[in-house]
Amino acid sequence: MISVQRITAREQRQRAAGFVNVYHSYIRWSDRPSRKLYWEILDDGRLVGVFGLFSAYSHPRAVKAEMTRLGVDFNELGNNGLFCLGGHTDKNTGTRSLAMIRKDAKRWWAERYSNDLKAMQTFILPPRTGAVYKADNWRVIGETVGSNMLVSSLTREEYEALEDKRGVDIRTFKNGAIRYIRRTRATADANRKLIFWRDL
Predict the structure, then answer these.
(1) Which residues have C-beta within 8 Å of that of residue 115, sequence separation ≥ 6?
(2) Going edge to edge, which strands form the sheet with 149-154?
(3) H or E element at residue 36
(4) Nearest-10 Cα torsion for 94, 24, 51, 141
(5) I need a surface site. Which of 57, 79, 164, 177 has the fewest CB within 10 A?
(6) pTM to 2 decimals?
(7) Residue 50 bridge partners (DSSP)
(8) In 34-76, where do the E strands start and end?
(9) Contacts of 172 (CB under 8 A, 6+ apart)
(10) Is 134 helix (H, G, I), strand (E, B) or coil?
C-alpha cells in the first residue's frame, strides 16, 4: 500500500539523501537555502520515493503570467524541485503519491510558513514528458527560455579527480555540507524546460 510521510527527523533526511543519490537520474541531494518540505513515499513501509517542495521560481514569463492571472503571490506558490522514485512495483505510485502530497502540502505549508499554498510548479527537462504530472492533472503553461550554461553537481571524489578545476564552484552551507558545482557551456535550446502548474 502506498503512503506518504513528512520528513522531519535528521535520520529521515539522511535516508532520503542516500535514496536520491542512488535513484535520481540527474539530481543529487543538496541542502537548499529556501523554504523546503520533504516527504518519503512508502510502499508497505519500504522507501520507494522522495518528494521535495521549495520556494518558487517566479521569473519565467509563463509563471509570472499565471501568477497574475490567478492572483497567486510568491509565497503562495511552491516549487516541486525534487521527485524521485525507485524500487516501486506499482506503476501508479507516482500519481497516487502526488495526490496525497498535494493534500498534505497545503496543511504543512500553512503550519510551517503561515501562507496559503495555492499552486505548485515543476520544471521538466525533455525528452522527459512529465507523464506522472499529467496523470495528476498538472498542465503545461509554457517553457523556459533555456540557458547557455549547464549546471551539474559533483561528488568530492569526482572533483578531486578533475585535472582542470576551472568552472567548478565550491559552496559551503550553514550545516557544514560542501557542494561542488560545475558549469559548462551549452546551446540555449539544450536547457529549455517544460513548466508544469497545478492549482490547489
Answers:
(1) 73, 75, 76, 109
(2) 149-154, 178-185, 168-172
(3) strand 36-43
(4) -70
(5) 164
(6) 0.79
(7) 40, 84
(8) 36-43, 46-55
(9) 178, 179
(10) helix
Given the C-alpha cell 492549482, which residue does it identify? 199
Q: What are the cell numbers at 24?
A: 535520481
Instruction: Please tell me the predicted confidence (pLDDT) of residue 127.
Output: 87
Cell of 121: 510548479
Report which of 33, 35, 2, 36 is spatially closest to residue 16, judged by C-alpha positions.
36
Residues in CB range of 93: below 8 A, 6 or more apart: 2, 41, 43, 48, 49, 85
pLDDT under 50 in the chain at which residues?
none
| Grid coordinates of 138 | 498538472
Written as nine digits, the cell of 166 is 576551472
**CA–CA separation, 124 vs 17, rounded Å?**
21
Cα torsion at 179, 185, 190, 196 (round to 10°)? 40
What single-letter DSSP state applies at residue 75? Answer: G
Grid-cell match 539522511, residue found: 14
Half-sphere exposure of 131 (CA within 13 A, CB side): 5
44 three-class SS: coil
C-alpha cell recorded at residue 39: 516527504
